[in-house]
Amino acid sequence: MYKGYSGKILRINLSNLQTQINATSPDLARRFIGGTGLAGYLLYQEIPQGIDPLGPSNKLFFCTGPATGTIWPTAGRMAVVSKSPLTGIWAESHVGGHLGPEMKYAGYDFIIIEGQAEKPTVLSVVDQNVEFHSGKPYWGQNTLRASKEIRKELEQQHGHVAVIGPAGENLVKFSAIMVDGARAAGRTGLGAVMGSKNLKAILVRGTGSVDVADPQQFKSFWEEGHQRVQENPQALEMRKYGTAILVATKQNIGELPTYNHREGVYEGWDRISAETFHDYYYHTSRACGTCRLACKKAFKVDEGPYKGLITEGPEYEGIMAMGSNVGIDDIPTILQAQHLCNEYGLDVISAGCTAAFLMELVEHDLLSEDELEELDLQWGNNNGLIQLMHAIAQRNGLGDMAAEGSHRIARQIGSEAEPYDMTVKGMEISGQDGRAHRSMALGHAVAARGADHLRNLVTMDQLAYKDVAAERFGEDKLPDICDPYVETYKALATVVTEKVYTIRDSLIVCWYTCSWPPIFWIEDFAQLLTSVTGESAFGSVEELMQIGARLVTLKRCFNVREGLTRKDDRLPRRFTHEPFPSGPSKGQTVNLEPMLDEYYSLYGWDLTTGVPTKETLDSLGLKEIAKDLSTRGLLPS
Amino acid sequence: MRVAVIPSRCTGCRVCELVCSEVHEGTFQPSKARIQVLSFDETVQDVPVVCQQCVDAPCLEACPQEAISRDIKTNAVVVDQELCIQCGTCVSVCVIGLDAVDPQQKLAIRLDEKSQMLLKCDLCDGDPQCVKFCPTEALIFTKKPVEGEFSVEEMMEALEYFLQQKELSLPGQEGK
Q1: Average of pLDDT values for A30-55?
Q2: Closest chain A residue to B172, measured at CA
Q3: Chain B residues with CB-CB distance to A under 8 A?
Q4: Ordered structural domains, chain B, with CATH
Q5: Nearest Cα residue to A113 out of A7, A35, A38, A17
Q6: Which pLDDT belongs to residue A459?
Q7: Spatial separation of the C-alpha atoms in residues A444 and B99, rounded to whole Å
Q8: Which chain B residues contact residue A143 at CB under 8 A?
């Protein structure tokens, strides 16, 4: 097996309490690298079409890549891959902290959870020893407490824990898996998959090593990498403020989701800006493994109803979801809402955006007094938001309906609610708006897990990186490629970016330092991969981009098999038909269809259906996938 | 000289552990790092623990083989692995983690079970790499006391809290 990998995949079946260790296949590593790439192939092969995401046939892949556990900056991350209970399609969610590296030190590239336990269970993986423990003492506990008690009870204080809270236990469709306290594999409802398997937590402790192919070459490369991050001015800004600096950035271009995306500017933005958080509430900074950015900011509340609260986060996304998008400008409320999401194990984006959706329904009298019970969900109601978070996690009253996510609620209420359903493929939209960030309009529409900003978000137009854009896409694409309000070149930028990011997600390294600030790009990943794995083919940028196309197309095929086509690559009507009423992006809407045509063409997918053609699949080395889809009659003729 | 630890600057990134293992073991293996980071999730704080090269070092004095000595150039208390018989006396007398039931849970000096090697900070021959690569200057190579640094007693307390999984609460950071 190549270096960099641990070389083993651990399978744990909760139905029969059996464990199995397989070798990681060098052939598959060469084709799909690792992380969500390799997981994509295995998920396609092992999860039958049409299964219930919350049934025993679904599997949960805890994934690392060849860079995980090395000292390369931001190599502390990992991904969880499965079939989503929120959307019924491809699910992936990435998480920082230290669990990914710990898996590698324990000797595993992947840990795959199969089946369904009869009773609440806690798993411990300490090097080669896998043990099943009763999860009963911890069932119902919040995530921080459960992690601590499990580490103490198992006498594995140095272990790292992935855990679900009450939300995952109660199968909330957007529940999260929490790692090392406040790091979340938040999106796509993976906490519910873990909950459906009666798995409260996995503790991993590893004392082994990660070895690289060329230690000398790698050393000079990682030293330079750390230096490049250390000297980057935007990285320094992020180290001080975290991602909250985006609040001002978005406000300035009219892309700060406000009142359920009705507006792109928020009158209270400066009361929830990075400076306000930092100057009045800053407590400490935290980094995931090997990261110099330390973008995770902890805050402390010294007065008011949440006096004494210390909590990690929120990121920009949490500030948007629990702030501008619900019309709340009170930082302690935003912190408490974020804290409840961490403690209950909820995806902060879907939870906040579902709250915004419900608030708009209330505004339009689409929820009855009976349904609302005691909840006051007027825009900007601090207490209403907090009560709703409790209700969702416990599935109390309206929370039981809200726990199903915006899209299911909209379908239940009917056509009157549809205009306010801000989801794509059933997942709530992250804190961007395609009307003020045209590449993101396409990105949200096509991403494999639904409204996703992390798999293909182009920062060239949003943050106007003109020099970087010229370098990556050519001088001739300026100024249009950096203009956030036009569609021109956005499909090209999205496709190139998406291929690079999918390589990033198979390594696995962080969004930050690759996407924003733009420090590392595909050339760096080529060098990283060759020095770590020893496979010289990875040193070719062309080859890596081809693998990138393979991995994006593979995830697409997983969704195609579940019945998705071009008709599912759509945006909420608000983005395409409702011009922004005010701000720098006033009057803007998205013209999606031409971008979709160009996007499919660039990948070699069929324009009518959005399904990859047989020729494309064959040329990408996905013959077995082509054969499977062809047998099912799903390939375009 | 010694590696002074300023926990209020630490972000818990563990670059120190990785570079330490790379330098001493030629691989990425934090379990063998001579410096270990303790994380406290509820108060969101991290405390690196590393040998403070005590003036009257109990490990040095207790070693029956005289395998532990002071490097005159760097002031590091260093182990001669050739002379060491892995008796564990030094581990048992180290004050950091004095109350730890399991000697494996001691951090500043400990015996690696697999290799039967004593793991202890040797100050990298006068150029400690953890200090060099720490992103936030939470580790300082110094002879003099440093503001905000943890004493041996405070490290002892942090380790005790960590083993009990109790929350250690330190003042917040400056935020730079």
Answers
A1: 98
A2: A283
A3: 8, 11-15, 18-19, 21-22, 25-32, 36, 39, 41-46, 102, 105, 133, 135-136, 162-165, 172-173, 175-176
A4: 2-164 (3.30.70.20)
A5: A17
A6: 87
A7: 55
A8: none
CB contact under 8 A, B31 and A105: yes
Q: Does residue A343 sit at the B interface (CB-CB below 8 Å)?
A: no
Does the pLDDT of residue A509 top 80, yes or no? yes
Q: Residue A88 corresponds to which tokens in the numbers above?
A: 């019924």
Q: What is the DSSP letter of A250?
A: H
Residue A126 bridge partners (DSSP): A129, A205
Size of interface A-B (CB pairs under 8 A): 115
Asked whether the beta carbons of residue B13 and residue A292 sit closer than 8 angstroms, the reply is yes
Residue A286 with chain B: CB contacts under 8 Å: 11-12, 44, 46
Cα–Cα distances in angstroms (integers) from residue A603 to residues A38, A291, A548, in the given order: 20, 33, 11
Helix ranges (H only) for A206-314 are 215-231, 233-241, 246-253, 274-281
What are B65-100's pLDDT values in tens digits? 999 999 999 999 999 999 999 999 999 999 887 666
Q: Where are the domains of chain A?
A: 8-205, 247-421, 436-508+540-631
Which of A207, A226, A284 is closest, CB to CB, to B45? A284
Q: Which pLDDT band, with edges at 50, 70 and 90, does A505 fall under?
A: very high
A21: tokens are 């260790």
Q: Is A302 exposed, middle or buried (0-12, 13-18, 19+ CB in 10 A)?
A: exposed
**Element holding A111 (H helix, E strand):** strand A110-114
Q: Chain B contact for A572, CB < 8 A?
A: no
Whether the bond between A479 and the residue before it is cis, its omega within 30 degrees of 0, is yes
In angstroms, the CA B34 to CA B82 distance is 19
DSSP reduced 3-state for A297: strand
Q: How far is A293 from chain B (nearest CA, A)?
A: 8
The partner residue sitting opposite A294, judged by closest CB among B11, B29, B165, is B11
- Lowest model confidence (mean pLDDT) among A510-519, A580-589, A597-606, B132-141: A510-519
Chain-chain contact of B18 with A283 (C-beta, under 8 angstroms): no
What fold is seen in the domain A436-508+540-631?
A: 1.10.599
What are the tens digits of pLDDT across the range A425-434?
Answer: 999 999 999 9
CA distance linking residue A519 with residue A513, whole number of Å: 5
Provide the CA B109 distance to its chain's centre, in angstroms: 7
What residue in B sits closest to A225 (Cα-Cα)?
Answer: B133
Q: Which CATH number fits domain A247-421: 1.10.569.10, 1.25.40.20, 1.20.120.140, 3.30.43.10?
A: 1.10.569.10
Residue B100: per-residue pLDDT: 64
Q: In this complex, which of B11, B22, B29 lies closest to A286 when CB atoms are compared?
A: B11
For residue range A138-196, what is the model confidence (pLDDT) as tens digits? 999 999 999 999 999 999 999 999 999 999 999 999 999 999 989 999 999 999 999 99
Instruction: List, as one string, the DSSP characters of B25-57.
Output: HSSB-GGG-SSEEEEETTTTEEEEE-----TT-
Q: Which residues from A are below 8 Å from B32, CB to CB?
A: 207, 209
Distance from the Cα of B86 to chain A's closest Cα (Å) equals 20
Contact B137, B48 (CB under 8 A): no
Coil vs helix vs strand at A18: strand
Alpha helices in A475-613 (DSSP H): 490-507, 522-533, 541-561, 573-577, 592-603
Distance from A532 to chain B by nearest Cα, in Å? 12
Q: Strands A199-205 and B77-79: what pairing?
A: unpaired
Chain A 263-322, residues with CB within 8 Å of chain B CB atoms: 278, 282-292, 294, 298, 300, 310-312
Asked whether the predicted pLDDT for residue A369 surpasses 70, the reply is yes
State whether CATH 3.60.9.10 applies to domain A8-205. Answer: yes
Select the residue of B15, B39, B172 nearest A290 (Cβ to Cβ).
B15
